[in-house]
Write a structure and sequence with these properties.
elongated, 338 residues, 5-stranded parallel sheet, 59% helix, alpha/beta
């Protein structure tokens, strides 16, 4: 999945800025701790001296061709001294109310240590950075700060049982949320797909964002697209010949290959035979590649079957877990309460 040189350099610059930011944060923490707990500054000096002394001793013993037994003893003593000093450092931090790793290097991604690479292989965070750069709308991180499981409110759903369905909106939503948590917990065990359907404003998009946040936090690549945005990309990939066509091609490839694709508000886009065929290609290809997809729609299952081809409907009902959400329009309730 090639990038333009300018795009690649933009991502590398972002990693450089991230590393510089991490270093500044670590230095600020060290200054804070040294002022609050001077003993730790002295311990760090002792740790540095211990390392330097061992290095000098190792060089001297090598030059004098001393035996391996002597070298092993020095190494054992070095490790013992370092463990003792670091234990004392951790104890002082926790005794003063700080986490014991407060002075460890700061990383946004511990897997690659904010370099973007694990060995010669691109890290998962690099892949997500590419997704966010190539298609800005897929970057939903700012929205996820306010729309996640920590901010999800069950009190928007009535505890009164619906006589037609034999279950209350709240009890139904509790079951739906449990299914979403199960989707997340077993995500790495194989491809899983969800269809969230129900009327406008019942929380389908919010719930999709909750899942996206949880999987992004677990280092998976996620693309969020409204049905309108997806259709634009599918059309551009087929007909677009402008100067940005390589960017569109990149995005189309990522749509097919990202860990999770979220298609929001299916049924609101302009539909025709071409769009239906391209949508089938997208859904089917992701199934073949064993990639997970979430689709949300205001359409009922009957309307979904009528609006789209039998092939699409068949794929969805056979390969997706179908979750129905009902209740009052939460956006209206929020507007009234404010």
């Amino acid at each position: 999945m090639p990038l333009k040189n300018s795009q690649y350099n933009t991502i590398l610059r972002w990693y450089d800025q991230l590393q510089a930011q991490n270093q500044r944060q670590l230095e600020q923490r060290q200054e804070e701790i040294y002022n609050a707990i001077p003993e730790i500054a002295r311990l760090d000096e002792a740790i540095a001296r211990t390392g330097a002394d061992y290095a000098r001793r190792a060089v001297l013993e090598t030059s004098q061709e001393k035996g391996q037994e002597s070298g092993n003893g020095a190494l054992s003593a070095f490790h013992s001294d370092m463990e003792r000093l670091n234990r004392e450092k951790s104890r002082l931090l926790t005794d003063h109310g700080y986490p014991n790793d407060y002075l460890e290097p700061v990383y946004h991604c511990r897997d690659c240590k904010d370099t973007g690479f694990i060995g010669s292989r691109k890290c998962h965070c690099f892949k997500q950075a590419v997704v966010d750069l190539v298609y800005a709308q897929s970057n939903i991180r700012s929205r996820l700060e306010s729309e996640n499981f920590d901010t999800f409110r069950m009190d928007y759903y009535s505890p009164e049982k619906d006589p037609r369905l034999g279950i209350s909106p709240r009890e139904n939503m509790e079951n739906v949320v449990a299914a979403c948590h199960n989707f997340i917990e077993h995500f790495d065990q194989g491809p899983k797909n969800l269809l969230l359907y129900g009327s406008t404003g019942v929380g389908k998009t919010f719930l999709s964002n909750c899942i996206a946040k949880a999987l992004l936090d677990r280092a998976h690549t996620v693309i969020y697209l409204t049905a309108f945005q997806l259709v634009d990309i599918l059309e551009d990939n087929t007909f677009g010949k402008d100067e940005d066509s390589d960017v569109t091609e990149n995005m189309f490839t990522y749509i097919l290959d990202c860990d999770l694709l979220i298609i929001d508000d299916l049924g609101t886009e302009m539909n025709n035979t071409f769009i239906t065929s391209q949508l089938f290609l997208c859904i089917n290809e992701r199934l073949l590649r064993r990639r997970s997809t979430i689709i949300s729609t205001n359409l009922s299952l009957d309307k979904l079957q009528r609006e789209y081809s039998e092939r699409i409907f068949s794929r969805i009902v056979s390969e997706y877990q179908v979750l129905f959400i009902f209740g009052e329009d939460i956006r209206v309730k929020k507007a009234i309460s404010s």
